[in-house]
Write a structure and sequence with these properties.
mainly alpha, extended
């Protein structure tokens, strides 16, 4: 009588041992180093511009964070203009969008500081101001993107007419 074969089909093999040959490992995902580099470079530029704005227009302790508000709203407006220009007007190099959109404007706008500003206002006993800042920034940033896209499209159409 013949001994039963295990999963590998070999007689006398331990059934708890897998003798199959593993397939090739999946390739590691490639890191798009040029994109990573231009995003990092752009973020440094944007963050430096934001820091410059905070030096030129400092916010008083416990005061309304006008600088952060202005930076975020103007950055959102610039994103609106930029996206229309590179998607509807000009065929940009593949690294322009990550450099300017993600890097420069992502580093310039500062929604993390926005969150910290809200926390500071609430901790200072100015919860109403903090909540007003929260809502006002959100509405103004969205309105800035929308208005910038609308105006940029009108200007482009006018120049092409």
């Amino acid at each position: 009588m013949e001994e039963p074969a295990d999963r590998s089909g070999r007689p006398d093999a331990d059934p708890d041992v897998d003798l199959s040959v593993p397939g090739r490992r999946p390739a590691r995902p490639r890191v798009p180093w040029p994109v990573v580099a231009v995003v990092a470079l752009g973020a440094m530029c944007g963050a430096a511009a934001r820091y410059g704005a905070s030096l030129l227009w400092p916010t008083a302790t416990g005061g309304f964070p006008w600088t952060t508000f202005a930076v975020n709203v103007s950055g959102c407006a610039l994103i609106g203009v930029f996206m229309v220009v590179i998607t509807e007007v000009w065929t940009a190099h593949r690294l322009i969008r990550p450099f300017v959109g993600t890097g420069v404007l992502g580093g310039f706008t500062t929604f993390s500081t926005y969150a910290v500003d809200i926390e500071r206002l609430v901790d200072a006993g100015r919860a109403r101001t903090g909540m007003a800042y929260l809502g006002l920034t959100l509405l103004a940033a969205l309105a800035a993107v929308w208005a910038a896209v609308w105006v940029t499209r009108r200007v482009v159409a006018w120049r092409q007419a």
